[in-house]
């Protein structure tokens, strides 16, 4: 009997936890369909006009394009830099390998506002200044740990026998990487890329430092919009962003399989 009450208590705790986590999101989604010209809950009626307003407001469209370009570019650059680094560091026995790995992952533990502030001064000193390139570089710094950590985790768990067998059969290092190593570490690359894209797409603190007429990302424009207006347009835009993340996860699951991202090989 005592065990039953414990199980009931744990089940109630889990239900309350999910309600606490999901209720704010569900309220934003419902508010995005309101017919009122202000944010309120419960809503007085249903309407799609705030979704239409998103596409009538050109700064949202321009910022959405910039956000996609930055997120895709930062993810690709992170893969180009992070995959070779992760492969080397995952099995390195050098004394400094751990220090280098910690350095590459350090941006995960640093406040984003510090990274943005420091990057702004450093890149301005290099002459890059506030530009699309500066924003792309800084987002790549933030995305890099996700690629390094996931790829290194997958690669460290792989037996060396696969690559040794390819080498014995005559494959050079490039062919071994392309036909043996790359397919095996693909779950880590896919998982890191997904996290990198979503992290870059939703980033506000860093993007805010590099904001200009040509480099404003969607979160920056949303913040600026809320400073002057508080209509449900932001709720509608948040709903579309949520839908984008869900669709991305569904596509990845259908094409590749989410479960493959969590296992080595």
Provide the fold topology.
Blueprint: H1 2-31, H2 49-56, H3 58-90, H4 97-105, H5 112-125, H6 132-156, H7 161-168, H8 173-201, H9 205-209, H10 218-228, H11 233-255
Helix pairs in contact: 2-11, 3-6, 3-8, 3-10, 6-8, 7-8
Report the uncertain regions.
none
The number of helical elements comes to 11
Q: How many strand elements?
A: 0
Radius of gyration: 23 Å
What sort of overall outline do the alpha carbons produce when their principal axes are compared?
globular
User: Could you give the order of the helices and strands?
Assistant: HHHHHHHHHHH
Can you characterise this structure?
The protein is mainly α. It is globular. The two termini are 44 Å apart. Helices cover 74% and strands 0% of the residues. The protein has helices spanning 2-31, 49-56, 58-90, 97-105, 112-125, 132-156, 161-168, 173-201, 205-209, 218-228, 233-255. Helix 3 runs parallel beside helix 6 (132-156) and helix 6 crosses helix 8.
In short:
The chain has helices at 2-31, 49-56, 58-90, 97-105, 112-125, 132-156, 161-168, 173-201, 205-209, 218-228, 233-255. It has 265 residues and is mainly α.
Characteristic key phrases:
single chain, 265 residues, mainly alpha, 11 helices, globular
């Amino acid at each position: 009997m005592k065990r039953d009450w414990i199980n009931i208590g744990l089940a109630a705790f889990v239900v309350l936890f999910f309600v606490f986590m999901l209720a704010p999101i569900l309220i934003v989604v419902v508010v995005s369909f309101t017919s009122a010209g202000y944010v309120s809950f419960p809503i007085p009626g249903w309407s799609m006009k705030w979704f239409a307003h998103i596409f009538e407001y050109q700064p949202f469209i321009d910022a959405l394009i910039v956000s996609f370009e930055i997120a895709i570019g930062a993810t690709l650059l992170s893969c180009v830099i992070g995959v070779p680094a992760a492969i080397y560091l995952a099995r390195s026995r050098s004394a400094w390998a751990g220090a280098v790995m910690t350095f590459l992952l350090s941006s995960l533990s640093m406040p984003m506002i510090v990274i943005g502030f420091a990057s702004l001064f450093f890149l301005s000193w290099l002459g890059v200044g506030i530009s699309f390139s500066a924003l792309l570089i800084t987002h790549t710094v933030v995305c890099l740990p996700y690629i390094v950590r996931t790829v290194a985790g997958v690669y460290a768990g792989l037996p060396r026998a696969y690559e040794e067998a390819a080498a014995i059969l005559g494959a050079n290092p490039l062919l071994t990487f392309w036909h043996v190593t790359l397919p095996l570490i693909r779950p880590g690359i896919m998982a890191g890329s997904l996290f990198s894209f979503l992290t870059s797409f939703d980033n506000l603190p860093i993007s805010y430092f590099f904001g200009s007429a040509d480099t404003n990302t969607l979160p920056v424009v949303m913040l600026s919009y809320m400073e002057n207006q508080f209509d449900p347009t932001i709720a509608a835009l948040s709903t579309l962003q949520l839908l984008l993340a869900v669709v991305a996860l569904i596509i990845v699951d259908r094409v590749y399989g989410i479960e493959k991202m969590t296992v080595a090989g």
